């Protein structure tokens, strides 16, 4: 059973309010494969509380001048590399097939 933190139920607008990041920044971090929202059948992005935490960490690192490719490299290097890769693949499949 997954934690409530992992359930993708938060809209991009709410993520914007929680993090202070612009919608463009949030989408950019998705493009850079730093965050992996799910998509509804209509294409709406849905985020989890864990995603919000990751976005806040990314924002802190960006403020320190760390480039996105370095952040991604660190994400793959640290912790559970297989979990990051699984999230990347799930996000790509979801985006391609508009699955939930």
From TrEMBL:
Originating organism: Halobacillus halophilus (strain ATCC 35676 / DSM 2266 / JCM 20832 / KCTC 3685 / LMG 17431 / NBRC 102448 / NCIMB 2269) (Sporosarcina halophila)
Lineage: Bacteria, Bacillati, Bacillota, Bacilli, Bacillales
GO molecular function, one term: DNA-binding transcription factor activity
Record's keyword terms, sorted: DNA-binding, Repressor, Transcription, Transcription regulation
InterPro entries, per the entry: DNA-bd_dom_put_sf, MerR-type_HTH_dom, MerR_fam
Protein name: Transcription regulator TnrA
PROSITE patterns: HTH_MERR_2
Annotated Pfam families: MerR_1
Residue stretches making up the HTH merR-type domain: 9-78
């Amino acid at each position: 059973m997954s934690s409530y933190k992992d359930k993708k139920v938060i809209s991009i607008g709410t993520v914007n309010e929680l993090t202070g990041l612009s919608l463009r920044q949030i989408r950019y971090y998705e493009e850079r494969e730093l965050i992996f929202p799910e998509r509804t059948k209509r294409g709406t992005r849905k985020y989890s509380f864990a995603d919000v935490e990751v976005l806040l960490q990314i924002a802190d690192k960006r403020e320190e001048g760390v480039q996105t490719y370095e952040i991604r490299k660190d994400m793959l290097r640290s912790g559970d590399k297989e979990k990051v890769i699984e999230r990347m693949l799930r996000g790509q499949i979801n985006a391609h097939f508009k699955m939930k």
